[in-house]
Amino acid sequence: MRTPPTQIHRPHRARRGFNLLEMLIALALTAALMAATMVALDASFMAYQTTTELASTHTISRMILMRILTLIRTGQAFSPFPLNPQDSLVLSNEMQFLTPTGDILSIEWIGAADVDAAHPNFNALYLTVTPPGGPPGTPQLLLEGVTQADEFGNHIAPFALEYELGRNLFRATVDLTIVPDDNMDMDLDGDNQQVIRLVASAMPRIAAYKD
User: Among 55, 56, 148, 210, which is most exposed with the fewest C-beta within 10 angstroms?
Assistant: First the structure.
């Protein structure tokens, strides 16, 4: 008599899991994939951070530069003057304007050696307003991150004033070297920062339209 198929006893096979070597290989592959993913995320974050810093700093710096050029065009008197009457070019860390309203505006670059109670931040531009017949006002922070140094570490004067016929300003050039910063710096950013350099010139209207 034949045994029904359902009654045939087949040998039982034990279920086989991962051994220690296979687990170690799987963990190593997972760690490698996670490391590659974190490197890609890190690169994306740094690229995004650099782009936002460049964009925001460039926009703000151009606004400040355009404001300074407007002051040059509308100014009625300027300083500093050449120490030697035979010189026509002055390179300076400060520039003063006499506005049509009689105010004296002073824009000054503050380096590490110039920090004091009125100018607590270095590598920055400060604006001081002196009303007619009054004392100078409190310096106001205009722009930070203005290093004024080239790739060799040489100082770049932010203001170049060209005079003619004594104390008549013919043209002024503003040269700003700025390190991008959007107040979100982290150690993850590293030191790979691009530098923005903005250079522009303007003539006072009294010099541009005279005969």
Answer: 210
What is the Cα–Cα distance from 128 to 144, expressed in whole angstroms? 15
Number of domains comprising the chain: 1
| C-alpha count within 13 angstroms, C-beta hemisphere, residue 145 | 20
Q: Quick one: DSSP state of residue 6? A: G
pLDDT tops 90 at residue 95: yes
Q: For residues 208 and 33, what is the distance between their CA atoms, to the nearest angstrom?
A: 65
In whole angstroms, what separates CA 164 from the centre of its chain?
34
Please write the tens of the pLDDT for every residue from 162-196: 998 778 899 999 999 998 865 544 444 445 567 88
| Sheet (strand 89-92) strand order | 89-92, 159-164, 168-178, 196-202
Is residue 63 assigned to a domain? yes
Which helix (H) or strand (E) element contains residue 45?
helix 20-74
Sheet holding 94-98, edge to edge: 77-79, 94-98, 104-110, 124-130, 140-144
**d(C-alpha 9, C-alpha 6), whole Å:** 8
**pLDDT at position 158 over 90:** yes
pTM reported for the whole predicted model: 0.72
User: Residues, the chain, total?
Assistant: 211
Q: Which structural domain, as residue segments, surrounds residue 39? A: 35-93+143-208
Cα–Cα nearest to 78, from 56, 54, 106: 106
